[in-house]
């Protein structure tokens, strides 16, 4: 086989290898971006859900405090001082503590999803880089093999 034909075949194989590498890298990048976006959305959803749950706890706490006041008033006890007031204040404290805990856990969970999204993106970039390196080596191998056959 003449040298120019062998060289042309080697270059064509190298070009195909590089093209396939870029296509694979593009697909991997798109997939990684989709996964990372889904992780961020899940984190945002989790945070919103925890905020809603915290509001629900505070509403339930206010309702319970009202029921306690009504119960004390119904039994003839003044709820603005002494032990009844301590009970109501303790209920308020526990309700707020629970609501803040729910929000805190929601923030931590959201941060975890965001970290996972960043890690997914970084891993994809590393895989793309490795794929491009492998394709470059395959292209160089095709050219060198063609040159060796031509000799």
Note the main attributes of this structure:
151 residues; mainly alpha; 2 helices
At a glance:
This protein is an all-alpha fold.
Protein described:
- The protein has one domain (3-150).
- The protein contains two helices and no strands.
- It has helices at residues 3-74, 82-150.
Mean pLDDT: 86
What percentage of residues falls in helices of 4 or more residues? over 70%
Discrete helix count: 2
Shape: rod-shaped
Radius of gyration: 33 Å
What are the segments in which pLDDT stays under 50 over at least 5 consecutive residues?
A: none
The structural class is mainly alpha
The overall strand count is 0
Strand content: under 5%
Largest sheet: none
- What is the number of domains? 1
Terminal residue distance: 10 Å
Strand/helix succession = HH
Give the helix/strand layout.
Elements: H1 3-74, H2 82-150
Helix pairs in contact: 1-2
């Amino acid at each position: 086989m003449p040298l120019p034909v062998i060289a042309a075949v080697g270059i064509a194989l190298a070009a195909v290898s590089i093209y396939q590498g870029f296509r694979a890298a593009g697909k991997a990048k798109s997939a990684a971006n989709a996964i990372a976006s889904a992780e961020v959305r899940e984190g945002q959803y989790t945070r919103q859900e925890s905020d809603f749950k915290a509001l629900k706890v505070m509403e339930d706490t206010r309702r319970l405090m009202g029921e306690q006041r009504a119960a004390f008033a119904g039994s003839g006890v003044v709820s603005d001082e002494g032990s009844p007031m301590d009970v109501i204040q303790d209920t308020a404290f526990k309700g707020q503590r629970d609501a803040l805990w729910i929000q805190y856990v929601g923030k931590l969970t959201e941060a975890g999803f965001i970290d996972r999204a960043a890690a997914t993106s970084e891993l994809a970039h590393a895989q793309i880089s490795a794929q491009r390196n492998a394709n470059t080596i395959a292209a160089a191998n095709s050219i060198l093999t063609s040159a060796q056959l031509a000799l």
